Amino acid sequence: MTTIQYLVGLMIIATLITGILFILFGQITVRKLRKNPETKEQLGVEFASGWDVLNVAAALSRPKWLSEKYKKSKLSGLAANSDVLYQSTTLFDRILARVFWFLYVFLGAAMILILILNWCGVFG
Amino acid sequence: MSEILLCSQSLNSEALQRQCGINTDQLSALSCEAPILAAANTPYLIGDDPSGIGRGVLGQLAPAHVARELTNLSLSYGGDNVVALAEISAKLKEYNIGLMGASTSVYANRMGGFAGSVKDYQAALMEYRQAVKTASPQKAAAKQKAHTAFQKMQSQFRNELKLVNSQVKARRGTPLTSVERATNIARSSRTATKLNVTSQVQANNLVKFSQHAKFLGNGLAVIDFGGRIGSVHNSFQAGGNWERDMFIESSSFAASAVAGSIAVKAGLGLLIVATPAGWVGLIVGGLAVAGTAAAASIGMNSVVKKNSGAVYDSVMKWISGV
Question: What is the ipTM of this complex?
Fold first, then answer.
């Protein structure tokens, strides 16, 4: 197998794991938040069905300073409100959120990096 | 490869010999082995068909509404280009992965706009062809209209066109890259044309292309997913390795959704922090995000599609070795 085929293989495995975590986090945490009247309206804009899962995971994984910065923005309504979410989630929810979110971000970033390298002709 | 003949009016063997240099003995149709003339809007297979692919292709193209549309399109665009355009429109559907992963309203509008501008251009070309055929005095105006539609499409959707066209290798360019090529094809007044179809999948693309209005609208992601299932189903029917195709289709779909959505997520994050000045900045920023997401998801789709077959093969080999 060539390098790119190995990378694609790894990406497929990582995509599968990310997909499973996405479903788990969506069903365990976000489902609960969607039903909660306090948090229902705070999950950010849902561009596609299931997009709020990404918003919540991002809000729970964001460093504090970035959340502060988001709050000042006129577009803060696009993202989920991390203050409210922290109050309505357990430690387990946050761990699940971070495991999913960082796997998702690393996978996505790796994919885009591989794409750029591929466009530059690194893989022949 | 199968060569398919299409005529817009019935040709007897002499006319056929004169126009295309083809003898009726070489033809075969779905319903009859040795036709004495080539009927209008009916696909004929030219030459032998040892592999049997040709008959399958004929069967797909034979329904009257498909054959009629395809004949008109082929005469308007030229046989090679219709095959190329059908591939393009199949590619267009892959944009919908972008839509799935990055279904921002900005992006949906943009894709709707792109498909719409291709359609306008196509309509202008058809109108020009009609004007040429009837020797109407509006010929020059119709040609001008096609040029304007082409310019509009080029200036607004440069990136999309580049991605779409990079998939097609036509020597003299396709109507999407060259308006000269397009109007030349539209002007020529032949009544018969040949299509070179290499596979059932390509024939399937042609059928879908002849009903191209369907690729517009809001159910894009659904149609695309249908398309993927269709290609697995095709392979199943053709006795191919459909498990392998299913692996390829589903893994490329998932990977491109991740790549597209992460691009949108990152782009929107930047937008929130950057707080663009006014709605102009927001629209420009949104378009940049959507464009990047489209590029990412389409790119990922093609990389995974190209390589996941080999991944599947080695996994299967490893399993059978254990």
Answer: 0.80
